[in-house]
Structure formats: C-alpha cells, structure tokens
Amino acid sequence: MKKLSIALLILLVLISSAAQEDVMKHVADQANTFTDREIEKLEARMTGIYDVYGFDTVIVTTRDSRGQTAQMYAADFYDKFRDYDAYPNGLIFSFNFDIGEYYEATRGMGMELFSDQGEGALDSLLRPYLDEPDYFGAMTAYLDSVEKTLSRHSTPGEGGKRILSTTLRLPTFSEAMAESAGLLPFMLIGGIAIGFAAAFVMRGKMNLARPQGGAQRYTSPNSLRLRDTSDIYLYQTVSRTKIQSNNSSGGGSGGGARFNSSSGRSYGGRGGKL
Questions:
Q1: Four-CA torsion 228, 230, 235, 238, nearest 10 degrees
Q2: With the C-alpha atoms ordered 107, 112, 114, 120, is the resulting torsion angle positive or negative?
Q3: Within the chain, how many helices (H) and strands (E) appear?
C-alpha cells in the first residue's frame, strides 16, 4: 500500500510538471529586462489577447543577436519558439540591445493588420518610453495598441471570443458611446455654459430703440458727400504646392517590409533604433 502511494505521488508530480511545460509562454526575457512582476503582467495580458482573438503575441529580449539583424533574429526566433502552422496568425516583438534595434515581425493576418501601418507609427508610439528608458511601459502601450487594432478588425463570436478579419470594422453606436461616456458630463456642462454665455452677450447687445422708416433719420443733413471713387483689392488668391521632404526623424519611417525567415516562412515587419 505504501509503495502504491509513493507511485501515485510520483505520477502526480510528473503530470504537474508536464502541465506546467504545456503552459503557453509569451515572454522570453533573455536580457533580464523586466522584473518577475512585470513578466507576470505581460504574460497575463498576452494570454488574454490569445484567448479572445486567437492571435499570438510574443516578446523576446536579447543581448546576443548572433550576427543577425533584429529583423532576421525576430523571425528566426519566432519560428523556433512557436510552430508556424499551429499559430499562423501572430507577431513577435524583439529588443536587440547588443545592436541597438527593436523589431516587430508579423505572420499571417498580422502582416495585414500591423506591419502595413508603417515604422513611423510604431516609433511614435514607443519613442517616449524608449527614451526613458521604460521598456515595460513601452510594451504596455504596445499591447494596448495591438488590442485596439484587433478589436477594430474583429466581430463578436461565441463564448466571448472575437473573429478576426483584415477588413476594418467601424465602431458600433454602443462602442462609440462607451468610448465617449467619460467625456459626456464635461461635454454637457461645456454646452450649457456656452449657451448661457452666448445668451448673455446677445442680450447685452440688444437695445430698445424704435425702428425708423428711413436711413436719413440716422445721419445729419449734408454730412455724407462722395468726393472720389476708386477700386481697392482687399483679397488675393495664392496657390501653393507642398514639396515632400525625404528627411525623417526618430527611429523609423515608411511602410512595413515583407521578407522570409531563414526557414523560408513569410513575414511582415517594421522596426527602428532603440
């Protein structure tokens, strides 16, 4: 009986270990960029995104890019970290500290939803955090943007899940109202205040003078005489054509790239300098 109990205990330990290994990980912090608590928050956030949208997200940090660009490192790491066929729609965000670059590599629907937004948009989102540097803040803002994009390109499904589409979905009336609900009280107060102010000004400008039958009652006799006439040009129309500049500031610009990983898998991507 004692041997049976020991065997059952060992079996439970093995099952528990296997279950822990099967947990889907989203953060590979090889450069020790985040605290344990920050990793927990990122993991929970990205797990929630996958559960709702079926869209995979991964963050990797490294101080050894192995001679690769951030673009190729991100795609190759993603190929090894997450099976391409099992997770066809997703993205990986890579911090490559040894070469001072960051990169977002996308696969499947991610190429249409994210990479085509352009590098400039991504850098504008991250730059305030990268300059601190606040990498956890950068990833929090990044995941906010990811989730907002997924929400706008999806429709409700069963069990709280959402069905992704590359077609942009306009917000429903209830969603628009929910987004503006926080501003509604201020809008109402502002509208009422403006209304009272306008009424007060208009009343101040009103007078009780009785209307007259002719304009001559408002002028003195012989007080208006025209001595000369001339044409004066009050306005002119000027047409200007904006000349686009090739100069750019910040860590990234332009649209997203399409490329293949070392294993030949198709990816989209955008990135910039840390």
A1: -160
A2: positive
A3: 8, 8
Residue at 102 is within a domain:
yes
- Per the structure block, which two tokens stand in for 236? 């002119």
pLDDT in tens, 39-94: 999 999 999 999 999 999 999 999 999 999 999 999 999 999 999 999 999 999 99
Q: Is the Cβ–Cβ distance between 60 and 95 less than 8 Å?
A: yes
Cα–Cα distance measured from residue 195 to residue 218, given in angstroms and rounded to the nearest whole number? 33
Q: What gap in Å lies between CA 250 and CA 76, rounded to an integer? A: 26
CATH number of the domain residue 118 falls in = 3.10.310.50
On whether residue 42 sits in a domain, the answer given is: yes
Q: Strand runs (DSSP E) across the chain, as ranges?
A: 27-29, 56-62, 90-96, 101-107, 154-156, 162-164, 257-260, 266-273
Cβ-in-10-Å burial (0-12, 13-18, 19+) of 195 comes to exposed
The total of structural domains in the chain comes to 1
87 lies in some domain = yes
Judged against a pLDDT cut of 50, whether residue 270 lies above it is answered with yes
The enclosing H or E element of 129 equals helix 119-130
Question: Residue 58 forms beta bridges with which residues?
Answer: 92
Q: Is 252 in contact with 119 (CB distance < 8 Å)?
A: yes
Cβ neighbours, 10 Å, residue 152: 14
**pTM confidence score:** 0.65
The amino acid that residue 96 corresponds to is N
Q: Which domain holds residue 91?
A: 24-177+251-263
